[in-house]
Amino acid sequence: MVTFTLNGIVHSLDVPDDTPLLWVIRDELKLKGTKFGCGMGLCGACTVHLNGQAIRSCITPVATINGQRLMTIEGLGTPEQPHPLQKAWVQHSVPQCGYCQSGQLMSASALLAANPHPTEAQIREAMSGNVCRCGTYPRILKAIQTVTNAMTGEEETL
Amino acid sequence: MIDSPLNPSLNRRRFLKVMGTGSGGLMLAFHLPGCSQIPPGQQENSLRPNAWLEFTSQGACVLTLDRVEMGQGTMTGMATLLGEELDYDPSRIEVVFAPVGKAYVQPDFGLQITGGSTSISSNWVRLREAGASGRAVFVKAAAEVWQVDQSQVRTANGVCFLQGSDKQVSYADLVALAATLSAPSSPELKSADQFRYIGKHNARLDGRSKSFGLADYGIDQEPDDLLYAVLIRAPRLGSTLKGFDAEAAQRMAGVERIFACDAGIAVVAQSYWQARKAAEQVKADWQTNELSALSTEQVFAQYATGLDEESGDSVRDDGDLDEVLATAEQLVEAEYRLPYLAHATMEPQNCTVWIREDRCDVWAPTQGPDIARYVARRASGLSESDIHIHTTFIGGGFGRRLSQDYVNEAVLIAKEFDRPVKLIWSREEDTRYDLYRPASLHRLKAGLDRFGKPLGWHHRIAAPVVLDHYAKDASGAMAPGWTPPAIVNFSSNFASWITPDTSAIEGAEDLPYDFSAIAVDHVKVDPGVPISYWRAVGHSFNGFVVESFMDELAEKAGEDALSFRLKRLQNFPRHQNVLKLAAERAGWGYSLPEGHFHGLAVHKSFGTVVAEIAEVSVEQGRIRVHKVTCAVDCGQVVNPDIVVAQMESGIIFGLTAALYGEITLKEGAVEQSNFHDYPMLRMNESPDIEVIVVESQESPTGVGEPGLPPIAPAVANALYRATGQRLRSLPLRLA
User: Fold this and answer.
1) pLDDT digit string (tens) for B166-178?
2) Angle between helices B369-380 and B466-478 (to 10 degrees)
3) Of the residues A61, B151, B185, B247, which has the maximum number of CB atoms within 10 A of its CB?
4) pLDDT at B44 over 70
5) Which of A37, A90, A124 is the closest to B683 by Cβ?
6) Residue B682 and residue A128: Cβ atoms within 8 Å?
7) How far is A50 from chain B, CA to nearest CA, in Å?
């Protein structure tokens, strides 16, 4: 039995210890926003937050997250209450096929939580673990910068 | 609850949330237009003037989208075409995915497929007419309500206005009356200066759902009581199953059944992970054949032999090449070589199938739902009318999902169960069992006179033909629904006859440059490796070959690469225009930062002309692409921001191929498996991209693919200037 908090809700599940967290999220908890891309932690489509840090759920055995706090794209924001990055994503029409974008948003939000004012080089580096086959990188960069610039603006007006 | 063919146990609420506000219109996606019977759930007084447009009695405007949305923006593009002539804000249009239906056949192909960058061009008139006929009916209805002539009625964003008064009535309020009126068959269309939505920046209709993890892809389909399947596949090309031992695997937790089928050994379990783990414990014994020893070196040796020994098909022969080359002062010859490539869609192949006694539901991320239907019919043994294909959002297509191999496999497995089964490929399978962009070998020869003027051009191509691999399933979908599959196989040649395949020669036979003699030959050599359409298809390799060799000639002629091309494009003003625009914006010929070099290329594909200039440096032996300047002429632009996005997409996709892409074979097995050995360009390597979109009122042409072909030669041409090394094979590797 493994117990963890996901998007603020406590779950106790009876699943084999070695089951990757990704499949628990998708197929046991039926949250389909987190995607399967490579199964080896190479593409970032499965990125979720573990205690606020971006991790690859496809290579994280579920047993290792016992007692910990998780967040998926469904917990990041909703159309009614979007995370600032999600607003910027829509504004810049970032998604194309969209399959990698949950993972991109989870990596970007973890980055901004740790470093609200990353340089362009820091953004590119932090986002380099997330593959986008459609090539939305230029827009991801702009969307993140829109948010960091807005945050800078807010601080200046304070 | 509406009694719908859509599995009611699917999470309907979630589906609706993705698709829009959720009206009765949803279910209309699953019946054929033109049916006399009103399907359950549809209100009798809803308005459906054609196969694409419906106004529900509640006033919701619903577009049945017959092209699949795989990132290229077709959902937004089609809604824009419809909304323009309907006078209805595209962002208010709800979109449902079309079922298989005759009305939805892509006229260029005779199939209901999304490919060839054709969605906008083939619907440019069709969907605008659909919108215009809807608008005409509302105008008629409003005129009847107000008892005025129709010429007195104006429309804007879903509302009719009576000229010279403050009277107005919304389309929604007119639906009941409009549904009783007939729509004109050929309504008048707007002129370009009347466009309100076309050519303006329109936000993507799918941007929101995809930014909140709410878009449902094939892999997300989950009917109740679902089983999960994985396949164990032949380890080498041409190998077949001799036998297997699944005793230990069969005893593992959650395993339902392990059995052999035409696709391999199926392992079916309660969960994906249980199936995957059990599959590792199955021991299989495979029989090999001569194909099982194939290596990449042998493929290129076969190509070389073909070019040495066969003249091939002459696909272009202008002027007297031999005579012209005999007068040349210098001859330039080169051999170019391009590898097999995998599609590497982010969403691995998958398909969910539920077969009941006389019904087969297929949920598939497919670019060809009618081919999927044929394949499911063949694999299930059911009749065409029993097969129901449900298309989904697609996590990357790039041509991969024109092939329906994964649908075939899922049906073969699911027919052993009375429960729904979802087949999911691993990334390793997706890389190792793809249907690849064919490898090709090219020999080029050109002559220059003593002033450096180019005289003749000879391009010889060794490559297979994609349709040879594709025709079997495609012709089944084209044949009447009662045709037995055994007969369809005989008629696959018929498909190649009615649809000429240009997959090996496109981008070479249509060389735009002015030479006094041009010859292009295709020597068909098919080593037996599974192949398919891959973004930009033949243009993906011929663009590289032609534009690299043009640079070689410019160099030999001692001329600037830009002016050398411009002089030979006198009859191609669109090519000249995009070249000049890109060159001017990039600062061609002006100094760049220390160690940076420009290279350029221009290429027309799918009706669209694109020029690209790459700014490149080499740092510690590594190729860095800093900036790409792109100019595109795709005729009338429907959604400018999506055109820009598709250029960015084609450039980055093409850069992955230019810098990394290579599938190799050793003893009949693909050597690559996942993103560590088949890498993708990542954000830290992604260049800045600037796109100039040419204003035009010509009919629109494709944008999904044309951004790709010029990027590899532009980078290679820049590398030559940076290093003096002329790289004639991809991926680009410096000595």
Assistant:
1) 999 999 999 999 9
2) 80
3) A61
4) no
5) A124
6) yes
7) 18
How far is residue B715's CA from residue B733's CA, in Å, rounded to a whole number? 12
User: What number is the average pLDDT over the span B604-623?
Assistant: 97
Out of B73, B213, B680, closest to residue A74 by CB: B213
Of A78-82, B55-59, B167-171, B562-566, least confident by mean pLDDT is B55-59
pLDDT at B609 over 60: yes
If you classify domain A84-153 with CATH, what class do you get? mainly alpha
A43 touches chain B (CB under 8 A): yes
A positions 60-89 inside 8 Å of B (CB): 72-74, 77-79, 82, 86, 89
Residue B671 tokens read as 């050597």
Mean pLDDT of B473-480: 84
Q: What is the pLDDT of residue B30?
A: 28
Q: In this predicted model, what pLDDT tens digit does every residue of B452-461 receive, in sequence order? A: 899 999 999 9
For B408-434, how does the pLDDT look when each residue is reduced to its tens digit (9 = 90+)? 999 999 999 999 999 999 999 999 999
CA–CA dist B709, B699 (Å, integer): 22
A2-6, strands of its sheet edge to edge: A9-13, A2-6, A69-71, A47-50, A53-56
Q: Which residues pair with A2 in a beta bridge?
A: A13
* Lowest mean pLDDT, pick from B17-26, B171-180, B353-362, B513-522: B17-26
Whether B645 and chain A come into contact, CB under 8 Å, resolves to: yes
Other beta carbons within 10 angstroms of residue B118's beta carbon come to: 21
**Domain locations along chain A:** 2-76, 84-153
Q: Which stretches of B512-607 are assigned E, i.e. beta strand?
A: 517-524, 597-605
Q: pLDDT tens for residues A28-59?
A: 999 999 999 999 999 999 999 999 999 999 99
Q: B344 — contact with chain A (CB < 8 Å)?
A: yes
Number of neighbours of residue B227 by Cβ within 10 angstroms: 23
Q: Which of the residues B683, B685, B689, B705 would you substitute to probe the A interface, choosing the one with the greatest number of A C-beta atoms within 10 Å?
A: B683
Residues of chain A with pLDDT under 50: 155-158
**What distances in angstroms separate CA B717 from CA A87, B201, B618, B711, B733, one per listed residue?**
40, 34, 13, 10, 13
Amino acid at B621: G
C-beta atoms of B675 and A130 within 8 A:
no
CB B331 within 8 A of CB B202: no
Domains of chain B and CATH, by start: 12-211 (3.30.365.10), 218-289+349-424 (3.30.365.10), 298-340+438-465+501-723 (3.30.365.10)
Looking at residue B438, its pLDDT comes to 98
Out of A102-106, B8-12, B261-265, least confident range:
B8-12
Q: Select the CATH number that applies to the domain covering A2-76 from these four: 2.60.40.10, 3.40.720.10, 3.10.20.30, 3.10.20.120.
A: 3.10.20.30
